[in-house]
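User: quick one, sequence for these tokens?
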């Protein structure tokens, strides 16, 4: 009889797709560029990523979107600016 013990720690990997710094015009829709999450035990953990955001596309300012899986956290920064008036 063979008994295997695996106490190997799960290692999470999280990659943000697209730019980490995004600029939007006030009132424009934010389009998520995406992300890939995996571990040393599973190839696709995208549905397990927790996303927290304070983004308000109606108000100019600096905002963050934070993505977390396990002990890995990545942050995307979004700047909302006023749309220049047409001349």
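Assistant:
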């Amino acid at each position: 009889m063979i008994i295997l013990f695996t106490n190997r720690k799960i290692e999470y990997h999280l990659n943000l797709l697209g730019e980490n710094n995004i600029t939007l015009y006030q009132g424009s829709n934010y389009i998520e560029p995406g992300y890939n999450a995996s571990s040393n035990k599973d190839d696709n953990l995208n549905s397990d990523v927790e996303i927290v955001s304070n983004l308000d596309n109606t108000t100019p300012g600096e905002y963050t979107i934070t993505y977390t899986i396990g002990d890995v956290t990545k942050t995307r920064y979004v700047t909302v600016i006023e749309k220049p008036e047409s001349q």
